């Protein structure tokens, strides 16, 4: 089983990720992992924090001579902004006068619920952990999962299909998504240039009015073989695991597999993917083919050999430059919600974080199915299985 956990505060000294269960012998490309962190920081509408941080991983354990060694991998990502918060968020008692309170909760954020739960008198500590800055650790962990999946020929990428009221009206090809991810300039992560330009208009309108805007990203896992996940137990269904992992990301309020949303308003003949058989020319492990992929690569909780398609629906960021109505924690008097430096739009960044969660989930179910304490053993088991279904 591949497991991971994260620690750290938004303005704390560092963020931490701990990953266990990766087999020994996975080649580790730190430039690749650091580029994943760079991708998370990009996008039109990001805030000033992204101009401060230059996220890079510092591996403390679990990797030696460029490969995983089978033991837990500990990663540290330093917060450069810590120098501005060291006296405001000290580990020891410090000077209470320097504490920077979040005096009124922001509607839509964890501020009020978290303060009530943990008996805090303001929302500073809630903000520090509930912040989407935490997803940096997930992206680092996901980078290692991607490196393992790469050894099996599986890739995971994302793109943006909607920002605000502007939506791309066609499906993206894998080649378009891969080309987009390789670019050294990220605008809004849409493969269609004309649609992306209109998406920019949505961000600019929100900026002019002191508002925020978000939308929908799509994560695609490419070359996933049939047979991952199971229908046998409710908590091992692949679609359920993916929905849980992506839904856990900050600001995600809905998750869709394939055409899950439109399927609810369509007839079965319009939704289910016909099954064909290719006698030659097929590059898939089996010769069973589908003319389209409405199921998003999963049927009955099991991958069916098509690409996995997972969409995340993102609510707008809760911190507005034109704050909504709120109440002071101390006096209960009506006031405006607190304001912290924030973004206007984070859809491309959320897509990268969701890639990490999908990669970690797929890596986990792959490890459960193929096993192996080393990458050599896992690849041997994987290749044997691929040959098995090829001969089916």
CATH class: Alpha Beta
Cα gyration radius (Å):
22 Å
Number of helix segments?
Answer: 12
The proportion of strand residues reads 15-25%
Number of structurally distinct domains: 1
Compressed to H and E, one letter per element, the order equals EEHHEEEEHHHEEHHEHEHHEEEEEEEHH
| CATH superfamily placement | Chorismate synthase AroC
Q: Identify the strand order in the major beta sheet.
A: 8-7-9-15-10
Runs with pLDDT <50, length 5+? none
Estimate the mean pLDDT confidence.
94
Q: In one word, what is the shape?
A: globular
CATH topology: Chorismate synthase, AroC fold
Helix content: 25-40%
N-C termini distance: 28 Å
CATH architecture group name: 4-Layer Sandwich
Structural classification: alpha+beta
Biggest sheet character: 5 strands, antiparallel
How would you describe this protein?
With 392 residues, the chain is an alpha+beta fold. The protein has one domain: Chorismate synthase, AroC fold, CATH 3.60.150.10. It is built from twelve helices and 17 strands. A five-stranded antiparallel beta sheet has the order 8-7-9-15-10. β13 and β14 form a beta hairpin. α1 crosses α5. It is globular and about 75 Å long. The relative contact order is 0.18.
Helices and strands, with pairings:
Elements: E1 3-7, E2 14-20, H1 30-41, H2 49-52, E3 58-61, E4 63-64, E5 67-68, E6 73-78, H3 111-118, H4 124-130, H5 135-150, E7 155-163, E8 166-167, H6 174-181, H7 193-208, E9 215-222, H8 238-247, E10 252-257, H9 260-263, H10 268-271, E11 276-277, E12 288-289, E13 298-299, E14 302-303, E15 308-314, E16 325-327, E17 334-336, H11 347-370, H12 375-390
Antiparallel strand pairs: 1-2, 2-6, 3-6, 4-5, 7-8, 7-9, 9-15, 10-15, 11-12, 13-14, 16-17
């Amino acid at each position: 089983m591949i497991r991971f956990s994260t620690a750290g505060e938004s303005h704390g000294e560092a963020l931490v990720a701990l990953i266990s269960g990766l087999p020994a012998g996975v080649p580790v490309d730190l430039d690749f992992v650091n580029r994943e962190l760079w991708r998370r920081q990009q996008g039109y509408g990001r805030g000033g924090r992204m101009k401060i941080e230059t996220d890079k991983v510092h591996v403390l354990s679990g990797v030696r001579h460029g490969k995983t060694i089978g033991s837990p991998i500990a990663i540290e990502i330093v917060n450069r902004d810590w120098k501005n918060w060291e006296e405001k968020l000290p580990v020891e008692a410090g000077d209470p006068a320097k504490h920077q309170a979040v005096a009124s909760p922001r509607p839509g954020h964890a501020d009020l619920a978290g303060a009530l739960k943990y008996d805090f008198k303001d929302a500073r500590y809630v903000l520090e952990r509930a912040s989407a800055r935490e997803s940096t650790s997930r992206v680092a962990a996901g980078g290692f999962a991607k490196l393992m999946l790469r050894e099996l020929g599986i890739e995971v990428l994302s793109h943006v299909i909607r920002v605000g009221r502007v939506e791309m009206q066609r499906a993206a090809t894998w080649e378009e998504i891969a080309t987009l991810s390789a670019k050294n300039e990220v605008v809004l992560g849409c493969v269609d240039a004309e649609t992306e330009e209109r998406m920019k208009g949505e961000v600019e309108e929100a900026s002019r009015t002191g508002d925020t805007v978000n939308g929908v990203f799509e994560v695609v896992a490419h070359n996933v073989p049939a047979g991952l996940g199971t229908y046998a137990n409710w908590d091992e269904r692949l679609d359920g695991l993916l929905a849980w992992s992506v839904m856990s990301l900050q600001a995600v309020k809905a998750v869709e597999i394939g055409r899950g949303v439109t399927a609810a308003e369509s007839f079965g003949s319009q939704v289910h993917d016909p099954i064909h058989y290719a006698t030659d020319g097929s590059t898939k492990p089996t010769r069973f083919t589908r003319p389209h992929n409405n199921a998003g690569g999963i049927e009955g909780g099991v991958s069916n050999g098509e690409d996995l398609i997972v969409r995340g629906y993102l609510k707008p960021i809760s911190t507005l430059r034109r704050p909504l109505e709120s109440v002071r924690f101390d006096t209960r008097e009506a006031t405006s919600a607190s304001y912290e430096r924030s973004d206007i739009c984070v859809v491309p960044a959320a897509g990268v974080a969701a890639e990490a969660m999908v990669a970690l989930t797929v890596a986990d179910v792959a490890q459960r199915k193929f096993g192996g304490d080393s990458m050599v053993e896992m690849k041997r088991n994987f290749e044997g299985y691929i040959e098995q279904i090829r001969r089916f």
